[in-house]
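The authors assume throughout that readers already know how a fold can be written as discrete tokens. The format is easy to grasp once an entry is in front of the reader. For illustration, here is how one protein appears when written out as sequence plus structure tokens:
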Amino acid sequence: MSTAPADVQKTVTEFLTSIDKLPEGFGADTPLYADGAELDSLETAELSATLEDVHGSDPYSIGEMPQTLGEILAFYAGA
């Protein structure tokens, strides 16, 4: 279970692609919700589960609500 930034970014990008919500120019500062990927609550729960399955933990399970990919990457950098 790698938590390297490139691996985490790949997981998030693949997830957004699979639900057809990968915004053009997606990067560390792109919002995951409004004005960005526009994830709803179910999709957010699915992203949380995917991150947990692939990387062994996720920011959502400890009460964090990351707003961007960069915040997700920062969670894993501190883990």
Summary: The chain has a mean pLDDT of 95.
